[in-house]
Write a structure and sequence with these properties.
The chain is α+β, with helices and mostly antiparallel strands and about 90 residues long. It has a single domain, classed as Alpha-Beta Plaits, CATH 3.30.70.330. About 25% of the residues lie in helices and about 35% in strands. It contains three helices and six strands. The chain has helices at about 5, 15-20, 35-45, and strands at about 5-10, 25-30, 50-60, 65, 70, 75-85. Strands 1-2-6-3 form a four-stranded antiparallel sheet. The chain has a two-stranded antiparallel ribbon with strand order 4-5. The longest helix has 12 residues, at about 35-45. The protein starts with a helix and ends in a 9-residue tail after the last strand.
Length: about 90
Amino acid sequence: MSHANIIIKPLVTEKSSHQAQTRNTYSFEVVESANKYQIKAAVESLYAVKVESVRTLTRKDKPKRGKVRIIHTGGYKRAIVTLKGDSKIELF
């Protein structure tokens, strides 16, 4: 799996923007089959930064009530990446 296929998109929210400024951490939506080592290599190669640690969490799909039947929203995997030193990602 190539590095461009592992990271789906960066997650830009109020909380992630605050953590980027204070803790030097960034959030990304990643492919569910990716592990921490693949995520670390993808971030380092795509953004040219040094990664200190990677934390992951999986959000499961949730049921919602429709008119006729119950539908499920899509789940996803999130990676919270902490960078070393003065490294910054300019997307946020």
